[in-house]
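User: Modeling request: complex.
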Amino acid sequence: MSRHVATSKKSVWIALAVALVIQTGLISVQARRHIDTSFVRVWILDTLAPIEKLVDRSLQSVSFVWNRYFALIGVYDENQRLKHEVDLLRIQIEKEKEDVHEAQRLRAFLSLQDSSIGKTVVARVIGRDPARTQTVTIDKGAAHGVKPDSAVITPAGIVGRVIHSSHFFSIVQLIVDSQSAVGVVLETTRRQGIVRGTGGRDLDLDYIDDDNDLKEGDIFLTSGLDRIYPKGLPVGVIKSIGPRRGLLKTVQIRPSADLGRLEEVICIIERPQTVDVADPQGVPNP
Amino acid sequence: MARISTLGIIGKFAIALIAVVVMQGILSFKFKVFGYFDLPLICSVYYGFTWGNPVASIVIGSSLGLMQDSLSGATLGANGLTKTLIGFFAATAVSKFAVETTITRVLALFLFSVGDAVLVTILSLMVGSARSPSYSGALGGWLLSATFNTLLGVALFGYHDRWKHATT
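Assistant: Request completed. Predicted assembly structure:
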């Protein structure tokens, strides 16, 4: 309610003059710096600061109680929700990691596809024959141009050849199968030979014209002589050299491609007229 | 009894004024946006308009300004002087203008805010306790502060009007 108190004009002007004189006096003495007015500020500060501190502490206490107790209502539910969210995000991260790996593999495949190994098609390994573990099933068949004796490779090395193909699927005989044989050439000396599958994890050297200069770690490449695999693709690395058995030493070769963990492969559905992928010395095709 | 009653009223006023200054200090510290508000100014205008008593408004304005200067570290007397004048003009405006209308309150709050800011800056510059501000930056700050003060002041007056209607 407004209370318009009747005051004489004189008293108003006196009050105003006194107030202005005090204030301007304070300002002017500060400007001239002759008289120390800090005591006025000190007095007022000493009066107001404790109140301010008290209010501040009260606010802090209220804030503390609020944050520690009342604000925690519903935290359990939020915690459960966040845990669930974290689980979902973990699953998503794993899936994305998988996608990245797949992309890397496919990129490698694509770079291989660019090389002059002929017309190719990428296939996914969808099964492994439980009875004959040296064959795998791929999701490409005759409809995609895959036919028997098509070479199947990975960027790391050769995998095997197609032995049966249906309209949309094919069976691939791995090079480690005991019925498999691959014409090879030694990378360093260019000596030619034949490796066979053992039915196990490794390959055996079946023939080479001179085995005296073989050593562990030597790499065998495809020779192209078998008319299945393009020339110059990695086949395997000499794992061990044993004593002579008959005319040849016992040589165990570890396949370059990891045949135990195949996911995507490349099927060569049409070979080029002249296949010369990696032959530094330019050995001519037979 | 009358003396006790008068002392009680003065005490309550003192507590209210101190609370305003303390609130201004704490809220400005806790929330940056509160630096644009000038609660002592709004209070001076509020008491001037609602009471219409120039002497009381001068005392209130002078006290609020002096306390504000002490806590803010500004030139002692700068806010005291401006708030004294604001209290005086607000109280004398009651008999000359229709201060019950919103448009008058908006204009008054805005002009008082800008005037207060300009005067405090000039006084501080004269004393040498402030560096010369950039005109565009200072003007922007003054206008922003005036807008904030006007909005809060109008809200406060609105609350006052509701309370007055409820009690009459």
